[in-house]
């Protein structure tokens, strides 16, 4: 369990400090699929950077399994082992010469034995379909391929919580489909997943829970069905309804309560008419 208790953060800028995250209390639990929504500047990336210890809270406490994360390097290491972050821009993450070396870097830093490093690197490479890329340089890959290496990188650390910051932004439709498939595999393995995204259709299809950020504040923490039903909230936070919801509204039928419900009820309807 990863808990934020009244965590706030300000970036230090030349023209005075800028509150990027107002006191935030939220808990991520094992095995959850969480969509993190909100327009640009809402605080999504700041939330993720705090959650894996890249940034330190200005006030408040982050707890992992009930234990507070303090300032000791031991605490930070504990947080970084448990919480993996895939950055929005994969380039900032890359350190090594080849894809294989790049993915080995994290597990090597954890001081794992060579056999275990190999096992983890092979598993991450297989999971992201990167077998043909082992000897390539990460910098010379396409945007979508880089995105996959960035995920494999973090996966090889075998975090319990995996945070992905707008992972679909550099992906084409095939890349997005592969990403969603990968997220499914990781969910089956029991990993908690949080994805910052502007794709409300994906959020509706995929997430168990949605966090809506607006101007550095967590405006709503609820099931996606509840979030997307609240049109005032969506308007305030600059979000759209998923396509299925807009289609339902245009057809004058009630919105789907579950991602599969719309198609199920449509089939049921035509069958009962027959
Ligand atoms: N490095 C930075 N320096 C100063 N302000 C920043 C920095 N990064 C983000 N901010 C500001 O913090 C707020 C939250 O940004 P961010 O967490 O990046 O939002 P999001 O990821 O939702 O787009 C915004 O007002 C943004 O301008
Ligand atoms: Mg961001």
Outline of the structure:
This protein is an alpha/beta fold and 274 residues long.
SSE blueprint:
Layout: E1 2-11, E2 18-28, E3 33-37, H1 44-51, E4 59-64, E5 67-68, H2 73-82, E6 83-86, H3 99-109, H4 114-127, H5 143-155, E7 161-165, H6 173-188, E8 192-196, H7 200-206, E9 209-214, E10 217-222, H8 224-229, H9 231-236, H10 243-251, H11 261-273
Parallel strand pairs: 3-8, 3-9, 6-7, 7-8
Antiparallel strand pairs: 1-2, 1-4, 4-5, 9-10
Helix pairs in contact: 3-4, 3-5, 4-5
Bound molecules: adenosine-5'-diphosphate and magnesium ion.
Task: Characterise this structure.
- With 274 residues, the protein is of the alpha/beta class.
- The protein is built from eleven helices and ten strands.
- It has a single domain (2-241), classed as Rossmann fold (3-Layer(aba) Sandwich), CATH 3.40.50.
- It has a six-stranded mixed beta sheet, sandwiched between helices.
- A hairpin with a 6-residue loop joins β1 (2-11) and β2.
- α3 (99-109) crosses α4 (114-127), α3 (99-109) runs parallel beside α5 (143-155) and α4 (114-127) packs antiparallel against α5 (143-155).
- It is globular and about 60 Å long.
- Residues 265-274 have low confidence and may be disordered.
- Adenosine-5'-diphosphate (ADP) binds next to β2 and α1.
């Amino acid at each position: 369990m990863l808990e934020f208790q009244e965590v706030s953060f300000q970036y230090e800028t030349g023209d005075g400090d800028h509150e990027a995250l107002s006191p935030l209390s939220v808990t991520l639990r094992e095995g959850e699929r969480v969509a993190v929504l909100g327009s640009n500047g809402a605080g999504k990336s700041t939330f993720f950077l705090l959650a894996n210890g890249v940034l330190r809270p200005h006030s408040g406490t982050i707890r992992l399994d009930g234990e507070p994360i303090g300032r000791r390097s031991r605490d930070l290491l504990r947080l970084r082992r448990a919480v993996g972050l895939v950055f929005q821009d994969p380039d900032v993450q890359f350190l090594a010469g080849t894809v294989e070396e790049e993915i080995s870097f994290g597990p090597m830093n954890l001081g794992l034995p060579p056999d275990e490093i190999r096992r983890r690197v092979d598993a991450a490479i297989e999971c992201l379909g990167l077998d043909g890329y082992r000897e390539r340089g990460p910098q010379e890959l396409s945007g979508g391929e880089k995105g996959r290496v960035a995920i494999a990188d973090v996966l090889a650390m075998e975090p319990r919580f995996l945070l992905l910051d707008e992972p679909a932004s550099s992906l084409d439709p095939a890349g997005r489909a592969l990403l969603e498939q990968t997220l499914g595999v990781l969910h089956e393995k029991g990993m908690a997943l949080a994805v910052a995204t502007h794709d409300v259709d994906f959020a509706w299809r995929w997430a168990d829970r949605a966090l809506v950020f607006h101007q550095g504040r967590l405006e709503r923490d609820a099931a996606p069905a509840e979030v997307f039903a609240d049109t005032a909230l969506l308007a305030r936070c600059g979000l759209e309804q998923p396509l299925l919801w807009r289609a339902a509204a245009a057809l004058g039928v009630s919105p789907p309560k579950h991602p599969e419900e719309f198609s199920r009820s449509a089939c049921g309807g035509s069958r009962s008419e027959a």
